[in-house]
Amino acid sequence: MSCKNISSKNRSSVCHVEQTYWFSPLLPHLESRSTWHSRQAYKTHTHPQFSIGAIEQGGTRSHYRGQQHLLQAGDLILIDPHQPHSCNPLPGQTRSYHMLYLDTAWCLQQLSRLCGHPVTSLHSRGVVLQDPALFTRYQHLIAQLHQGDIAAAEKTLHHLITPILQQYCLPVEPAPYSSFPPEPTYHTTTRYVRQRLLSNLQTSPSLEALAAELNLRRETIVRQFRRETGVTPMAFLNNARVEYAKTLLRQGTPLADAGYQSGFCDQSHFHKTFVHYTAATPGQYRHSRSIFDNK
């Protein structure tokens, strides 16, 4: 993996961090990440999946739902799909943590099964969980994934996610049932900007072009978009490009092609943005794939 396109400060803090990703076609609804002794910070970002984090060592400060949450070793955190958040280390300290990213459609299917009726939206009531039994179960799942014991991991995953969904997730049941969560209700302007930005990641319109199309000032668009989504249009676009690049890398797409197809102007821009939103390089992410594919 190459770190030559990252600034010297980020190169020393990212490329030497011990971290692994896990994903497999045998469990297509699950991805995990494990990071040890990292001081690397994140930009505010979102994930399309339902995310569950676990702090193994140290502490982290999470900004989520307009509040600051302090997490210590042994804590779990629930993060809803598409919700802006950041989880950064405490000043001068390292932290070790795991993340589980669970496909939202799969979670809704599990929640519908538990509720006995269709559920089409997922909203967690809790944010920081202090539950030693769940934390231990989470650790067992991570160990089984890294050992390649898929059958045991699948069973542990169900034993972990079932009580979390039952105790901490609030079902919302608009009909008819869809396997995908409904898009939040946005103002016409925000909805239009989202659709235009996502319509083609390689040729997304500039803010100036959007302002002309909507006959609005750039500042008005940015202010309204941030108020409704929690991020600026450019941050939203970069986040979407990184998530699409991750999808391509999981499929084995070469780094240069993944960056180009995701809309990044060059490899330097791709590496820098990927690091800002994931605290890992594209090469580190793809390298983890090759490790677990060869087991």
From TrEMBL:
Transmembrane segments: none annotated. SMART domains: HTH_ARAC (SM00342). Coiled coil: none annotated. Keywords: Activator, DNA-binding, Transcription, Transcription regulation. Pfam families: AraC_binding, HTH_18. The keyword DNA-binding applies. GO terms for molecular function: DNA-binding transcription factor activity; sequence-specific DNA binding. Residues 191-288 form the HTH araC/xylS-type domain. This is AraC family transcriptional regulator. It comes from Brenneria roseae subsp. americana. The lineage of its organism: Bacteria, Pseudomonadati, Pseudomonadota, Gammaproteobacteria, Enterobacterales.
